[in-house]
Write a structure and sequence with these properties.
Strand order of the largest sheet: 1-2-7-4
Order of helices and strands: HEHHEHEHEHEEEHEEHEHHHHHH
Structural class: alpha+beta
Number of strands: 10
Number of domains: 2
Largest sheet: 4 strands, antiparallel
Number of helices: 14
Length: 358
């Protein structure tokens, strides 16, 4: 039975309930809330075109689950509304400085602190329980990048921003340095105004800055060339033609956000759990490369970095070292891994040493 059939749930004053939801969400650390319906037809067509072009690379999960990704009610039966929530995460503002230091390891700013998946999912669940108590029922299911959900499409439809030329969601008051989470519900909440207009104008800064030319055009990303894909999602050897273009980016890439004019409005978060840990915001490539696996596991505990595992961590760092200066420290670190058990790591180490030795 859905909430629409539940006599206890009258939603006599739905706007008042929505105002309360916004207050409760703010108390839990969320910076914005919007409500979308479940009609994502336009985005469904875009997703299929993107998949047909093969731009998802080895991310086979993007093609699984049929239409559940773009049809919320097929993923969670009886869903008629989706709450979309934004949580800002920017803490460290020295990104350009680290990128310019070729001996440093650049790690995407979103992953310097605690893994956002766990933090946000817990708070979304708390919010869902509060709504259920106040509304007298309803069914809820929270997601944080953990299921087939078109989160940016939902956020755009809920009025949290627009999907920009770099395929990120941009908010005119907050830029793009934020996480998204969703709550699927069968409560007939009032929807918020969708973001129908895009405010990128003639700007192409994000497309022009991409180190690997991963953008086929505005609003169209070939993930197979994206550094975030190569360093996080891709499991095998990195294309030798792309390695020199990656610079010192060893986990993700923020270039298209760093040049976006709208990010002048981004505000630093007060969320303690998003603060950098273990000096990962400012570490030497060679020092990280010499971590043993136990150190890697200890220093990345509770972090999204751990998901790539030790082998890919070393693969990425080897590429970064190969793109840096031919210092004695870098060459010594690479030499120590020449006999590493993983063939993939050895391959990237040999490549890096060749780069440094000309």
């Amino acid at each position: 039975m859905s909430s629409q059939d539940d006599p206890q749930i009258t939603l006599a004053d739905p706007q008042k309930l929505l105002a309360s939801i916004r207050q409760w969400a703010n108390e839990l650390g969320f910076d914005q809330v919007g409500v979308s319906d479940v009609n994502l037809g336009e985005h469904e067509a875009y997703l299929q075109k993107w998949l047909d072009a093969g731009y998802h690379g080895s991310m086979d999960y993007m093609a699984r689950h049929g239409n559940k990704r773009s049809r919320p009610a097929e993923l969670v039966p009886d869903t008629c509304r989706v709450l979309s929530l934004r949580m800002d995460y920017l803490t460290d503002t020295r990104a350009e400085e680290i990128l310019a230091s070729s001996e440093k390891a650049y790690i995407s700013r979103y992953t310097l602190g605690r893994d956002y998946h766990k933090l946000m999912r817990k708070r979304l669940s708390q919010l869902a329980r509060r709504i259920e108590q106040e509304a007298g029922g309803g069914r809820f299911r929270a997601f944080v990048d953990s299921a087939p959900v078109l989160e940016r499409a939902i956020a755009e439809q809920a009025g949290l921003g627009w999907i920009a030329k770099n395929t990120m969601l941009i908010n005119s008051a907050a830029g793009s340095w934020f996480f998204l989470g969703e709550i699927y519900t069968d409560l007939p909440l009032p929807t918020t105004s969708a973001q129908h207009s895009k405010h990128c104008g003639s700007c192409t800064a994000c497309l022009d800055i991409c180190p690997t030319n991963a953008f086929v055009g505005p609003f169209e990303l070939d993930a197979r060339r994206c550094i975030s894909y190569l360093t996080i999602e891709h499991h095998g050897s990195i294309d030798p033609a792309l390695r020199p273009l990656m610079g010192n980016r060893v986990f993700g890439c923020d270039d298209c956000q760093l040049v976006c004019p709208w990010n002048k409005f981004a505000q630093a978060t007060d969320e303690v759990d998003f603060r950098p840990r273990h000096d990962l915001e400012d570490s030497e490539l060679a020092d990280l490369f010499l971590w043993d696996e136990d150190t890697f596991l200890a220093r990345t505990e509770g972090s999204a970095i751990r998901r790539i595992g030790f082998e890919r961590w070393l693969r990425n760092l080897a590429v970064g070292l190969g793109n840096g200066p031919a210092s004695a420290q870098a060459i010594t670190a690479l030499e120590k891994r020449r006999n590493f058990p993983s063939q993939m790591v050895r391959e990237h180490v040999d490549w890096a040493l060749q780069q440094l030795r000309g």
